[in-house]
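INFO batch 0412 | record 1 of 1 | parsing
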Amino acid sequence: MSLRRLFKIDWKKVFGSARAMAKRSGRTTLGIFFDLIDCYYKRGATWLNYLCFGFDFQRDPAIRDTFIAEYKDNAILFRCNAPEISRIIKDKGLFNEEYREFLGRDFIDLRKTDREDYEAFVSRFDHVFAKPARGLGGVGIEKLTREQASGQYDRLVREGKVVIEEEAQQHSELSAINANSVNTLRVCTCINERGEVTVIYMVLRVGRQGSFIDNLSAGGLYTRLSDDGRITHPCYSAKERYGAVYTHHPDTNLPFVGIQIPMIDEVKELVTRAALKNPGARYVGWDVAITPDGPIIIEGNDRPGCDLAQTYVHTKIGIVDACEKGLSVKLR
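INFO prediction complete | emitting tokens
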């Protein structure tokens, strides 16, 4: 791996994670650290990959080879997406225009509208979300009431929060898990050389009290779902204490295992149709909300990420085989 990346690593977090993993696995901190560096060079795995994959527990090279890692494998997988489509997916305003039929809610882009259009739009809704056109992890997103949004056109344009969206209404069964935010599904689709779409994994993300987004950077939790949409394993957070496992929601004490997510067949049908709209985007993670009227797409991700689908709490093997079959590529 590039030596330049070594200077960008947060070594404090690396050593902190090594100590935490040594404690949970019974290995030495130094042993974990050198193994982590070895995995970085040989497999392209970041320290967060190592932590989430549970490589402190799993030392079998054959099993480790089943995991997609950040730097080595993603370099191949990201080439499965045509640059012109990736550009659209990365920009929330362009994405909304391109995939309007799948959104199930209204929006405007302040780069294409004026103050009068903005005021008319925000006056129609109790709440709106103001988002930067580009960005990850929910950074910079605001949730505004009708009164708070009024008169904010200049500020939002100045701050680059130019994508204004109607609030999505969440299905009651998802609100029962956490009502503070819309709890979204990350659903990853692959398109093979024959143009066939495969859903290779579904992950439920769950928000926390005090946050209107479910992103992991905001303290959100996640768990991988079974093929029929059931929660079969506890939730996990990599942000908290270098990896925390939750059998119950920490704010409501609701047990996770056994919950059936509604409308899973409709979710799969929705993302399949979205994937086929632009087959040049062969590897996409769709963030899906489930409303009382059915699933809708919140946004797309041309870099779905490695950790969500391969966390040791949820699986003992990685998704290399699924990606190879789903994308008609060779990774091993």
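INFO post-check: The mean pLDDT is 95.
INFO record closed
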